[in-house]
Amino acid sequence: SSGINAEWPLRPGEKQNKLVVMKLTNANFVRSLENAVQFGTPFLLENVHEELDPVLEPLLLKQVYKQGGVEYLRIGDATVEYSHEFRFYITTRLRNPHYLPEVSVKVTLLNFMITPQGLEDQMLGIVVAKEKPELEEKKQMLIVESSKNKKQLKEIEDKILEVLSSSEGNILEDERAVEVLSSSKILSEEITAKQLIASETEKEIDTTRSGYKPVAEHSAILFFCLSDLANIEPMYQYSLTWFINLFITSIEQSGKSDDLQTRLANLNDHFLKNIYRNVCRSLFEKDKLLFSVL
Description:
By secondary structure, this protein is mainly alpha-helical. It is built from 10 helices and 6 strands, in the order E-H-E-H-E-E-E-E-H-H-H-H-H-H-H-H. The strands form 2 sheets. It has a 3-stranded parallel beta sheet, covered by helices on one side. Strands 3-4-5 form a 3-stranded antiparallel beta sheet. A hairpin with a 2-residue loop joins strand 3 (65-67) and strand 4 (70-75).
């Protein structure tokens, strides 16, 4: 996973399970790993490179063997009891790591790098929340309500199936079954009607939100331009949090206007200058001209 928060790939509750977080450079890394395997503690190995330490080989291959009814695993020079509660996670900060096939087959690879579409959606949510807070709030409420309605409809379907499968003989003579089916039909119709109203409202909101899409597209393109600077010099790395904070600053400080097109132009212009000024401070002189072309 590329430049991610250490919690993202973890199962719910791993932090409460005394998650151990270490790097290969930690002096007591192997000893801590042995303890985690033995006592079933989740273990997170951070910031690995494209080559993994050979000491991890038996673990990644799950070379567990039984002896006297007890399962063991060899780690380095030590043999430790193996707990099935043990969970092993690895993260990297490399932007675009290339792992050899022999590594890829031993692990499950997850890429947490944000996609252009995902970032665009995120930036659209931010700009609309700032420009039209009541609209974005209503949008979020509709998402929650829609999810709740779908869950209720699923519960109704399950209830009907349960009644049909448990009913014996003529279902029309089963008072409880008829009552459940009747009330379920009424409730289902009410929820479906609510969903239709919510869908129409959501379409209206999305139409208004889409007016700010040019700003979201522009900002997403800028972020990926910045990301590509690491190909020139690995030191040129900029976090998404930093980028979003600059974006919010531009929304607040750029020229206001009741005309949407004027407002969009002001936002894009201010943010572009804001990014340029801040990034130029961190660039070597020889790379500033190239950045200005980007």
